[in-house]
């Protein structure tokens, strides 16, 4: 099961690969806007989340779910994981 912490670790590592930043600058409180992520970064994030965490993110989630921080993003991914693991 993915936890907020495990999801955050995956997302943080990806952001460190995409952006030239220091690890201590990337926290759960970091804003998506403040990290200067662009649309290609979001596509890469979707691919990594699917491969490493086993869930598919809705491309429209950032707009429709009002995801503005890494905390909100991680919570969203954890919700997707729980929904995918729930009995049908």
From TrEMBL:
Instruction: Specify the Carrier domain's residue ranges.
Output: 2-81
Q: What would be one Pfam family of this protein?
A: PP-binding
What InterPro entries has UniProt attached to this entry?
A: ACP-like_sf, PP-bd_ACP
Q: What is this protein called?
A: Carrier domain-containing protein
Q: Which organism is it from?
A: Stenotrophomonas lacuserhaii
């Amino acid at each position: 099961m993915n936890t907020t912490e495990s999801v955050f670790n995956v997302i943080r590592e990806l952001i460190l690969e995409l952006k030239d930043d220091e690890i201590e600058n990337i926290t759960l409180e970091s804003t998506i806007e403040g990290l200067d992520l662009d649309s290609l970064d979001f596509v890469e994030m979707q691919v990594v989340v699917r491969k490493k965490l086993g869930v598919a993110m809705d491309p429209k989630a950032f707009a429709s779910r009002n995801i503005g921080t890494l905390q909100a993003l991680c919570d969203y991914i954890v919700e997707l994981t729980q929904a995918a693991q729930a009995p049908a």
